[in-house]
Amino acid sequence: MSRLEARDKVTGAARYAYEYQVEDVAYAAAVLATIACGEVERVHADEVLAMPGVLAVLSCENAPSLRNDPDDGELNVFQSRRVSYRGQLVAAVVAETSETAQEAARLLRVSYRDARDPDLELRPPSETYDHEPYGEPVEIGDPDDAFANAPVLVDATYRTPAEHNNPMEPHTTLAHWDRDDHLTVYDSNQGPTKVRSTLASLLGLDERQVRVVSPHVGGGFGSKGTPRPNVVLAAMAARAVGRPVRLAVNRRQMFAITGYRTPTAQRVRLGADTDGRLTVLAHESNEQASTVRGFTEECVNPSKVMYRAPNRRLAGRLLTLDVPSPSWMRGPGETPGMFALECAMDELAKALGLDPIELRVRNEPENDPTSGDPFSSRNLVACLREGARRFGWAPDRKGLGVAAATYPASRGGSRATARRVADGRYTVRIAAIDIGTGARTALTRIAADALGVEPSAVTVEIGDSDLPAASLAGGSTGTASWGTAVVRACEKLTADPAADEASVDTAAEVGEQSGYSCHAFGAHFAEVDVDFDTGEVRVPRLLGVYAVGRVVDPVLARSQFVGGMTMGLGMALTEHTVLDADGGFLNIDLAQYHVPTCADVPSVEAVWLDEHDPHVNPMGTKGLGEIGTVGTAAAIVNAVHSATGVRFRELPLTPQTVL
Ligand code: MOS
Questions:
Q1: What are phi and psi of 170, to 5 degrees?
Q2: Is the beta carbon of 329 within 6 A of some atom in ligand 1?
Q3: Which residues are within 8 A (CB) of 649 and not within 5 positions of it... i.e. 6 or more apart?
Q4: Pocket lining: 332 vs ligand 1, CB cutoff 6 Å
C-alpha cells in the first residue's frame, strides 16, 4: 500500500498552510529583538506606516491583551516590554504583499532601554551552584561507596551543542476571523487539538470558536509539537486588520523563535567489576533554559532503563540563561542522553578489554532497573546480535562502532468515530495529524484491520480540530495513541451491526497503569573513514536494528528509521548552532547549519525484529519516529575512536575538532 497522499504531494496538489486561497489576504512579517536583555523603549511604527501598502504595526505598544499562558511564556506575544533574548519576537508588520511586509519589517526601528550583557554560558556540571534541579532525581543504593570500591571506573563529561530542527516547511499560519468572532487557522503544527485549545485560552474564546486546519505538514521533529508564537501572532494580526493574514516564520527566524535542542554537559560515571558487571551507573546532565520558558530536555531518562547496576544516581539540572527558548527536537532527552551513556559504555568496554556488545549483554537487566517493573518486552540483546551478524561486526576491526538505542512506548488519550457509509465503506474521523510520517496511511491500515475490510474500503479523516479531539504527534506516540482510539471505535461499530456510527474516548483506557515498563529498543552500527590529513569523517555504512513491537507499514517505518539515523549522523558530524557574544545564533541558514544530504550518507540500512507485545496497546506497536536518532551519534563517535584511538567527547566531530 503506498502513502495515500503520495500523488498529491508529488504533483503539488497537497495544500500546506500558507497555500490556502482566501479572499483579500494580507501578509505579516515578524520583527525580532536586536538586543538580548532589556526593554523595548519605543517602536517607531509611524515611519513604516507611511509606506504604501503597510496596514498595521503590532507590538507591545498596541497589542490586545491575552490571557497569559503560564507554561509557555513564548506564547504571550507582545504582552510585555521586556526583551529576554536576542531574536525574541518584538513587533510585526502587516501589509498588502509579502514583499512590502518584509521590507517594512526590515526598516522598522525599535529602540531599547536598560540593555545589559546577557548571561550565555552553560557552565560545566561541577559548578552547580546556580543550576536548578528538575525532575525526580534517582538515587538507588550507595553510589559513592560503589565508586570508591569499583575496580574499573569511567568518569567522563560529554558535551552536545545547540542543534536546530529544520523541517522543509517552516512554521506557517493563515489566520482568518469570521464576522461572528470565529477564528480559522490553516497552520503547520503537530497537533490541531492542542493548537485549538491554546488559541482559545489565550484569546479568551470558547473552543468552538476556533478551528485549526492542517491536512499536510512538511515536518516538525518537535519544533511544532506545541503551538509556537507564530500562530498567536497570525490570529492577532488578522484581527487587527480585519482581513485574513498569512505569516511564515522564515528560515533565519526559525533559529530564534521556534526552539532548538539545548546544549548539554553530561557527566557519566560507570563502575564495574573486572568481569564487566556494572556496580554503579551515575548520569548527571546540565541543560539550559530561557527566562521565558522552563523547558527540560531530561537527558538522564534513558539511564533509568539501561543496564543492570545495583547503585544508580541520575540527576538533571537546568541553568536559566538569557538565551532563546529550547524546545523539543527528535528524541528529546534520549538523543543527547544516550550519546553520553553509550559513549561511556564504549569507554568502559575498552578499559575492560571487552567486546562492547558483550559488555552490554552482560549488563542486561531482568526488570526495569529503576522502577522494578517487568518490561512489556525487551529485545535489546537480540538487536545487538542481529546487527552484529548483518554488519559483519568485529570488535578488533578498526573503524567500526556500536551503540544501543531505547525510547519509551507510551500513548495519550484520544477520541475517534467510525461510521458506516454506503456500499460497505467506512469513514473514520480523528484529529490526528500527518507531519510527513504517513500517519493517514498507517491509521487506514489499522482501521481496515479492525473492521476486517480492505484498506480501500476505509477513508480516514485527520488534520482538522473539528474532528474528534486527539493527542499530539510527539514522543513517538502518534500511531499508538490514535490507533488505540481508531481500533476501539471500529470494534464498537462492528459490535453493533445496527449502528451507523460509533464514538470512543480512550482517556480512561490509556490512563490505566499496565504494570509494565514499556520501551522500544534498538542497536546502531556505524563504519567510519577518517581522513588523517583533513580531519574529515565519512560514514560509508550505518545500520539500525530495532525491536519496536508490531510494524504497521514497512515502507513508512523504514522511512522513519532511516530519517532518524540520518539526523543522528548530522548530530555526530555537522549540526551545531553557535551563539555569538550578543546572544544570537550565528549560523542561521542551511548553508552554515549543515543538515546531512544524500552525499553524506551513502548507505543507511534499517531492519527490525518480529516483536509481539500484547501489553502496549491493541495494535502491539511501540512507536518508531524517534528511536532512529537515539544512539546513532554514539555509534559513529565510537567508530571514530576505533579508527583513530582518540576519544572525542564533544559533538559535532567536524574536521576542525578531529584534527
Ligand atoms: Mo517529537 S521531539 O516528540 O515531536
A1: -75, 180
A2: yes
A3: 156, 157, 158, 159, 343
A4: yes
* Predicted local confidence at residue 166, as pLDDT: 97
Q: Are 547 and 383 in contact (CB under 8 A)?
A: yes
Nearest to 55 by CA among 260, 238, 262, 189: 238
Mean pLDDT of 611-625: 97
As a whole number of angstroms, the distance between CA 425 and CA 423 comes to 5
Instruction: Say yes or no: do domains 23-116+166-257 and 132-163+260-409+518-658 share a fold.
Output: yes
pLDDT the model gives residue 104: 98
Q: Please state the domain extents for the chain.
A: 23-116+166-257, 132-163+260-409+518-658, 415-511
- Please say if 626 is a catalytic residue: yes
Per-residue pLDDT band at 1 (split at 50, 70, 90)? confident
Distance set, CA 577 to CA 6, 9, 593, 651 (Å): 33, 31, 7, 11
Q: Residue 564 C-alpha to ligand 1 middle, in angstroms?
A: 12
Q: Give 621-655 as a DSSP string.
A: B---SSGGGTTHHHHHHHHHHHHHS----BS---H
Is pLDDT at 28 greater than 70 in this prediction? yes
pLDDT of residue 128: 52
- In whole angstroms, what is the distance from residue 588 CA to residue 192 CA? 28
Regarding the beta carbon of 190 and ligand 1, being less than 6 Å apart is answered yes
> Which segments of 89-145 are extended strands (E)?
89-95, 110-113, 132-140
Choose which CATH entry (2.60.200.30, 3.10.300.10, 3.30.365.10, 3.40.1180.10) describes domain 23-116+166-257.
3.30.365.10
Ligand 1 atom having least distance to the Cα of 332? 2
Q: How many CA atoms lie within 13 A of 379 on its CB side?
A: 20
What gap in Å lies between CA 276 and CA 454, rounded to an integer? 52
Residue 647 CA neighbour count, 13 Å, CB half: 17
Percent of the chain whose predicted confidence (pLDDT) is above 70? 99
| Whether residue 225 has its Cβ less than 6 Å from ligand 1 | yes
State the distance from the centre of ligand 1 to the C-alpha of 629, rounded, in angstroms.
11
* pLDDT tens, position by position, 447-479: 999 999 999 999 999 999 999 999 999 999 999
CATH architecture of 415-511: 2-Layer Sandwich (3.30)
| Nearest ligand 1 atom, CA 222 | 4
CATH class given for the domain over 132-163+260-409+518-658: alpha beta
Q: Which atom of ligand 1 is nearest to the CA of 330?
A: 2
Relative orientation angle of helices 478-495 and 439-451, to the nearest 10 degrees: 30
